[in-house]
UniProtKB/TrEMBL annotation:
The keyword Hydrolase is annotated on this UniProt entry: no
Molecular functions (GO terms): amino acid transmembrane transporter activity
Spans through the membrane: 6-26, 38-60, 66-90, 124-145, 157-178, 190-214
Protein name in the entry: Lysine transporter LysE
Length: 215
């Protein structure tokens, strides 16, 4: 593996733990609904990251440069989704103020396929709807995206990026599941809904404003 390829993987390993919508989505899903649901949300995040990584290696950035309206549509769709999700989390926060909330017990006794699929789709949507991920990946993969770089090297970089993302987000889900077992888990979920909802709404609003500025 060349130095450039190794550098790409190391840079991603340093960048991926930075808090963002995917961090919030996995943390909230785990604390509110349990380990399995959080793991599914984490898998959704990794699937979306893998799509962006493959697109970057295939040179899709050139296509997006030629058709900038695609990024604009991603911004609008992602912004609307994040605002909607943020509003739902804020409603959950205010409803919990008048009700006893025990998410961890509920999730352990009643985990169904629908809930797992919902977590997977939310983790995927939050990540794929973030155009900053596209910009990040296209810039990150620039050193290894050229035709001069052997296919096996690009494949190793792709697998390395996916492995880093998968390991980090799965570990995040495990850590949050451990935190949910504490005596303060109920209050943690209560305030996480408020913080996550506000951050999702703010981030979504920023995407919409950015899209309006581009158009």
């Amino acid at each position: 593996m060349t130095f450039s390829a190794l550098a790409v993987i190391l840079i991603y390993a340093v960048a991926v733990p930075l808090p963002g919508p995917s961090f919030v989505a996995v943390s909230r899903a785990t604390i509110a609904n349990g380990r399995m649901v959080g793991a599914c949300a984490a898998l959704g995040v990794t699937l979306a990251a893998a799509i962006y990584a493959v697109s970057a290696l295939l040179g899709i950035s050139a296509l997006l440069t030629a058709f900038p309206w695609v990024i604009t549509m991603i911004q609008i769709g992602g912004g609307i989704y994040l605002i909607t999700l943020g509003a739902a989390l804020l409603r959950s926060h205010f409803r919990a103020a008048d009700n006893t909330l025990e998410p961890s017990q509920h999730s352990r006794s009643n985990i169904d396929t629908a809930r797992l699929k919902d977590a997977l789709s939310k983790g995927f949507a939050v990540t794929i709807g973030n155009p900053k991920m596209a910009v990040f990946f296209f810039g990150l993969f620039a050193p290894v995206a050229g035709q001069a770089v052997p296919t096996e090297i690009r494949l190793m970089v792709l697998l390395g990026i996916i492995a880093v993302d998968l390991i980090y987000h799965q570990l995040l889900a495990q850590f949050m599941a451990f935190m949910a077992q504490s005596d303060g888990a109920r209050h943690l979920t209560y305030w996480l809904d408020a913080v996550a909802g506000a951050l999702m709404a703010i981030f979504g609003g920023g995407l919409l404003f950015s899209a309006i500025g581009i158009t």
